[in-house]
Write a structure and sequence with these properties.
Helices cover 53% and strands 9% of the residues. With 131 residues, it is mostly helical. It has one domain. The protein has a two-stranded antiparallel sheet with strand order 1-2. Helix 1 packs antiparallel against helix 2 and helix 1 crosses helix 5.
């Protein structure tokens, strides 16, 4: 967890595994960018207690996903953490250190405020919106 006023990062990160595994599952379902945009909005947009209630379910729904189904798949599958670790290695190879970072054709898009720019770039390259 991070205090967005002081930028102090806690040694305890109680939500990181759930979020990263959900991100992997969203990507596997073809909605990774949409899910990242929705969840980033919760995290960095000031949603109080974003991890409680139906905040994440709402974010997943807006991205075209079902949170309960995703979590059942994650629990049954067991391969999500290894994919997170592979992505961490790719992030380091791209010369970056933080999330969210996306790299498309060698161009990094760092920070939740760059997700719309990434979407624009993907659409410009022919990826249809919503695909």
């Amino acid at each position: 967890m991070q205090d967005l006023q002081s930028f102090t990062i806690s040694d305890e990160q109680p939500h990181i595994y759930r979020l990263t595994h959900l991100g992997v599952e969203a990507q596997r379902r073809g909605c990774g960018v949409a899910f990242a945009a929705e969840v980033s909005g919760l995290l960095f947009g000031g949603t109080k207690d974003w991890h409680t209630g139906d905040h994440l379910a709402g974010a997943a729904g807006r991205a075209g996903l079902d949170l309960d189904d995703m979590e059942k798949t994650i629990a049954a599958d067991g391969s999500h953490q290894s994919e997170v670790e592979e992505n961490q290695e790719a992030l380091q190879r791209a010369g970056h250190w933080g999330v969210p970072t996306f790299v498309f054709r060698g161009e990094p898009f760092f920070g939740q405020d760059r997700i719309d720019m990434l979407r624009w770039r993907l659409e410009k390259e022919g990826l249809a919106k919503g695909s």
